[in-house]
Every structure is written in structure tokens, then in C-alpha cells.
# Entry
Amino acid sequence: MQESVQLAEDETVREQVFQAIEEQDFQALKDITAAMHAAELSDLLESLPPKERSVLWEHTPDQLDADVLSEVQEEVRDVLISEMDRNELVSAASEMDVEDLAEVIVDLPTDLRTAIEESLDNAVRAKLETSLSFEEDTAGRLMSHELVSVRGDISLDVVLRYLRRKKDLPKYGDGLFVVDRDGNYMGKLPVEALLGNDPDTLVRDVMEKDDIQIQASTSAHEVAQLFERFALASLAVVEDGKLLGRITYETAFEIFREEADHAVLSSAGLDDDEDLFSPVLRSTYKRNIWLGINLMTAFLASWVIGLFEGALDQIVALAVLMPIVASMGGIAGSQTLTLTIRGLALNQISASNIEWLKRKELSIGIINGVLWAVVVATLAWNWFDDPGIGMVIAAAVVINLIVAAMAGIVIPLTLQRMGIDPALSGAVILTTVTDVVGFMSFLGLATLFLLP
# Structure
């Protein structure tokens, strides 16, 4: 119920925006955007066609620019940035958190990037340089520099007095990070330990010395998995033992969301930063790449069918039944493919269990192949009153389901070794395999055993 109410509210706001733009009531646009959270405004901008998006962005309060640019997806952000003048963009960039600015600044022209860096104070510029020194989608690039660190050789009373003097504390903090005199990471001081012990107790005596920490080079995927596995609220990022920053569950949640979007869109051959309202020509270009690849695989399957043109001319039933074999293999293979890609994403598959998984999928392919071969053979026999047709399609179904099961696990493993995302191209390759093997086995067996 709550979700449906929120959807209705979003639709109402969009209607108000369209009406205000149509009536050129720009004050109404300013009032609408000023009352919204940056995340809500980002969603609204992403849900508008280009013309309306530009007008709304033009009348968004300047103080929201930084937060909105940090929230919107990359393709939309590029469009919004292109519509900002130089001073406006420099001002917005100076208000961003370092980790958000690092994501934005790498795609900007050199002169604009230099202007932004020069507008930052020395401390922020140093943090930005640290973030940019690490590869994209690593802990070092994703980490926040906003944290509270304390020494291990001071008392809890000193820590409490220090915290009272600070005006602002970082969000999503479940504890303080403990370092030595040289900045080496020692552990975490949980909030409950800080508040629940004698004020004269030293930090090092109650801190968590075995607290989980990650290297700055750790991949975003591994970071998210740690948060899920250990139900973490925050995580220290270190390099050569030095504390560099922290990652919170908010960032981990964003990683999970992006990976989910990537999996869904990649399965259709789309970029995970695809803008729903991007220009026609740009979207057409992106989609044509995979349409072209699919066309080539379709011609390959058609070529295989053409090899058995004589059999199809003599036995019409083959043309009628042919799609069944390929379809059964495609479904069986996609089930295995989906589970394998999920296992790879969760790091559940390794050299120690690959052979077991292959044996399992082979067994499933054999059992399902025999089971459904009996069903399909019985139906085909009764339909065309020809036991030979039934036997041939039964054998073809068994062959294709076995191959499909093995392909569903071998293809993503092979693609991963080659450095290719299985979610992006696995389905296309699998479809080609099941179509070719399905047509080849069915028509080939029919040519051997049914033609005079």
C-alpha cells in the first residue's frame, strides 16, 4: 500500500512539472524542486524527456546541484553537466563529497577539471588526489574520507570530550576508528564500548582489534559481499597499514543496486547507465550492436537448417516439430546459465567445486532429457502417426538438453576467464549453441533414419 501511494505521489509531481512547463510557470518549478530531497529530484529528472528535463534543471535551486549530480545515473549526469555554465559547475563540484567528485571529475575536459581542482582547498584536493590514485570500482575510489579516528593510548573520557567539541559527526557511524601515532590502523571502538565502560579506561583496552578491514585495491563487488556476509555498518579502508577512509552500508547498498541493474540490462544487451529518455539516435546505436550480433547467430542457425533442405522438403513434420527441440534446450540452458552467473557473482564457484557442478548439471540434463523425450515422442507419434518421428525427436531432445545443461555452466566460466562479463553475452552464445545443436541433432537424425 505504501509503495502504491508513493508511486501516485511521483506521478502527481510529474504532472505538476509538465503543467508548469506548459504554462511557463517557472516559479512553480522552483517551488516544486525546492521542496524535494536531492534523491527525489534525481529520480524525477531521470523520468522526464529531454526537453522537460532541461527546463526543470534550469530552475533547480543552485544549492541542490551538487547533491543531484551525485545521485543521478551517469548518462543523465553528463547531459545535466553539459547544460551548466563553467562557474555553476565549479561551484557545484566544490560542494560535493570527495568520493562523488572523484566519480564526476574523471569524465570532464582537462581545463574544466583543472578549474575545479584549483577551487578546492588543499585538504580536499589532497583527498581527491588520493581517491583518483585508485582504479574505478575499488574501495579506494569508493571510500568516504569523512570519519572520526582516535588514538589507542587515550582514555574514553578524552574521546567523549573530543566528540562533544565537534559540531558534526559523520553519518552511519557505528564506531570510531583507532590509529597509532603514525596513522596505522589498530581497530574499531564501537559506540557501545565507548558509552558502556569506565571513562578512565584506555581505548586500546576495549577496541575491537580483530575488526574487519579492507585494502584500498579491493573490488567493489568484494566490498559489497563483506557487508552482506558480516552484516557490517562500516568498514575501514587501509593501504600499507595506514587508515585512508571508510565505506558504509549506504555505499554497499548502492553497489548491490548497480550490480542488479547491470545484470538485468546486460541480459538484454543494454548498458547499465542507459537513459530511458536518451536521444533516439544514441539509443539506436547502442541497441544495434547486439541486434547485429543476434542477426549473425540467427543466420548461423538458418545455415544449419539449410543443410537439411532435402529432408524438410520430403517430411513436412520436421519443419513443424523443429522449434520444439531448440526451445526445450534454450529453456534448460538458461536455467543453468542464470544459476551459474549468480554463483559467480556471489563467489560461490571455484576450482574446487566446478567439476562437481558439471556432474550435477550433466545428471540433470540426462534426467530431464529422458523425461521430456518420452513426453514429446508420445505427442509427436500420436500427432503424425509415425513412430519414427517420435523416436528421432526424443533422441534430439535428450542430446540438446544434455548439451544445454553443460553449455549453461561452461559458457559463463569460459567468458569469465576471458575477462568478458557472462551476463552481457552468455545468453546470446547459449541461444546459438542450443539452436545449432537442436537443429543439427533433430534434422541430422531424421536424415539418417527417416529418409529413404
